Amino acid sequence: MNKAPSPSAALSLCAGLLASSATAALTSGVYQTLPGATVVESGDVVPNGSRVVPISAILTLDLDAAPPSLTAVFSNAVLEGREPIELTVRSSSGARLMDGKYWFTGDYLRDLYPSGTQYGFNWRFSASTNGEVVWNGHIGWWGGRLWDVTISNLTIVPKPRLEIGQAGSKVTVSWLAAHAGYVLERAAALPAAEWTTVTNSVEIIGDRSVVAVEAGSSQEYFRLRRL
């Protein structure tokens, strides 16, 4: 990232992190699970028949599409008691229900096996308070064998969006102040072998948290990490 980019360039270089304002309505955007989130996996080949496993996912909801669509990127997806894997899951069908919830279904493993499998998912999302969203549903084997992952009242929250600006000789990095509990980090290249915490002070200006850093000649990338 050039240290003094245009706002549009800055948005693309910050990995397109999106945020939804606090609202009672479910809106399009990028959401993430909270640290410590878990689901229950059960089935014929799951150790002891059932286990509680962590879940970490980034979900992109496009509710304006026809039909509405969903993409979920898991860092630790499970499959019939095996070790967790990285997995991208995309909806094949979606709809807005009469009660305002959104429903999505599709092939859980289609990104790995484009010809299709009998592993499916059926998820529903509803709005909560403070911009949060509640996720319920199941992942399972639809061919007759017992295997199920139950997602029950799991809270997902909007990912904050970084904005880059310029103030004199400095570059400002800001995000909505309502997104508390994050620390700003920097790296010299992507992919980054290491991210370093930005120790510059955070100033609240209006509804935004703002950090000013010295502009330099080298590229630099920024991200927010949830504490």
Please provide a written account of the structure.
Helices cover 3% and strands 50% of the residues. It contains one helix and 18 strands. The protein is mainly β and 227 residues long. The chain has two domains: 7-17 and 160-226, Immunoglobulin-like (Sandwich); 29-158, Lipocalin (Beta Barrel), CATH 2.40.128. The model is unreliable at 1-23 (pLDDT under 50). The strands form three sheets. Strands 1, 2, 3, 4, 5, 6, 7, 8, 9, 10 and 11 form an eleven-stranded antiparallel beta sheet that branches. A four-stranded antiparallel beta sheet has the order 12-13-17-16. Strands 15-14-18 form a three-stranded antiparallel beta sheet, with no helix packed on it. It has one helix at 7-13, and strands spanning 29-33, 38-43, 50-54, 57-62, 69-77, 85-90, 93-96, 102-107, 119-127, 133-141, 147-158, 163-167, 170-176, 182-187, 196-197, 203-205, 208-214, 221-226. Strand 9 and strand 10 form a beta hairpin. It starts with 6 loop residues before the first helix and ends with a strand.
In short:
The chain is mainly β and 227 residues long.
- Named CATH topology of the largest domain: Lipocalin
Measured by DSSP, the beta-strand proportion falls in over 45%
Helices, by number, come to: 1
What percent of residues adopt helix (DSSP H or I)? under 10%
In the predicted model, the low-confidence regions spanning at least 5 consecutive residues are: 1-23
Global shape = elongated
Mean pLDDT: 85
Supply the CATH class of the largest domain: Mainly Beta
How would you describe this structure in keywords?
18 strands, disordered N terminus, 50% strand, 4-stranded antiparallel sheet, Lipocalin, Immunoglobulin-like, mainly beta
